[in-house]
Design goal:
The chain contains ten helices and six strands, in the order αααβααβααβαβαβαβ. The model has no long low-confidence stretch (mean pLDDT 83). The site of zinc ion (ZN) has 8 residues, from α2.
C-alpha cells in the first residue's frame, strides 16, 4: 500500500537521524530544537494547554462544541511558524511535523483537567495532493502525538470527498457547499462512543475542522477535541 510506504520512508528518515539541527525559521544553530532560542521567543508558547477557554476554542465556538482545543503555536505572516509550515508543506521536511507532534503530545499528557482521547484522527488531505507531496502533514503531526501519548491513530475513518466529482460538472451551488461536505465518515463503528482527538496542521477559519467534525457525526461520537500545530492570525 502506498500509505505504508510513505510512513516507512518517513520513519526511516527519522531513525537515520535526519532531524533538523538548524532553526527552520532563520537557519541559526537550534541545538536539536525546531527553532533557535530567538525564534522560540518570537514564535511564543500558547497558553492553550493551561487555559480552557483559549483562542483556538473561541474560534470554533460558533461552529461546534469541543471538549478541548489547543494549538502549539501562532501562525503570523513572516513569523517562525510560517517558515515551519512552509517547509512542512512544500519541502517535504516531515521530521519537523513529527517533532512538533511529540511536543504537542507531551503538553497534552501533562494536562490534568481534560480526559484523554481514545483515538487520534488526522484530517485527511486530498489524495491528489497527498500523491504529489507523498504524505499528509496532519498525519505526520499525529504520528508524533501518538508516539508520546500512546493513543492510536485511525486513518480508516475519515475520507475526503473532493475529486470524486469533477469540478467542471458540479453545479455552482454544490461548489459553494463543497467545504461543508468535503469529508465522509467511512467507518462509523470505528468512532462510535469514542472520545476523538482530531488533528490538523493549521486552523484558519475553522471551516475544514467543522466539516470533518460534521462528517464524524457529533451524536455518534462521545466527545471531540481539536489539536493543531498552529493557529493562524490574520
Ligand atoms: Zn531562528
Amino acid at each position: 500500500m502506498a500509505k505504508k510506504n510513505y510512513f516507512k520512508r518517513a520513519l526511516g528518515a527519522l531513525s537515520a537521524g535526519a532531524l533538523p539541527q538548524k532553526c527552520v525559521a532563520c537557519g541559526q544553530e537550534s541545538f536539536g530544537g525546531v527553532f533557535c532560542l530567538t525564534c522560540k521567543v518570537l514564535a511564543g508558547e500558547t497558553d492553550h494547554f493551561s487555559v480552557e477557554r483559549n483562542q483556538t476554542l473561541s474560534r470554533m465556538t460558533l461552529r461546534c462544541e469541543l471538549e478541548f482545543a489547543a494549538a502549539l503555536g501562532i501562525f503570523t505572516k513572516g513569523g517562525p511558524y510560517q517558515s515551519l509550515l512552509h517547509k512542512l508543506k512544500y519541502r517535504g521536511v516531515f521530521t519537523l511535523g513529527f517533532k512538533e507532534g511529540r511536543r504537542f503530545g507531551i503538553k497534552y499528557m501533562q494536562m490534568s483537567t481534560i480526559p484523554k482521547a481514545d483515538i487520534i484522527i488526522p484530517i485527511p488531505s486530498h489524495w491528489r495532493r497527498k500523491l504529489k507531496r507523498g504524505y499528509n502533514q496532519a498525519e505526520i503531526f499525529a504520528k508524533g502525538i501518538e508516539r508520546e501519548t500512546k493513543i492510536p491513530i485511525r486513518t480508516d475513518v475519515l475520507r475526503t470527498r473532493l475529486g470524486i466529482v469533477s469540478q467542471t460538472t458540479k453545479k455552482r451551488e454544490e461548489r459553494m457547499n463543497r467545504t461543508y461536505d468535503r469529508f465522509l465518515c467511512v467507518n462509523p463503528k470505528g468512532v462510535a462512543k469514542k472520545r476523538v482527538l482530531l488533528v490538523d496542521d493549521v486552523l484558519t477559519t475553522g471551516a475544514t475542522a467543522e466539516a470533518a467534525i460534521t462528517a464524524l457525526n457529533m451524536k455518534a461520537i462521545k466527545k471531540i477535541q481539536l489539536g493543531l500545530l498552529a493557529l493562524a492570525m490574520n
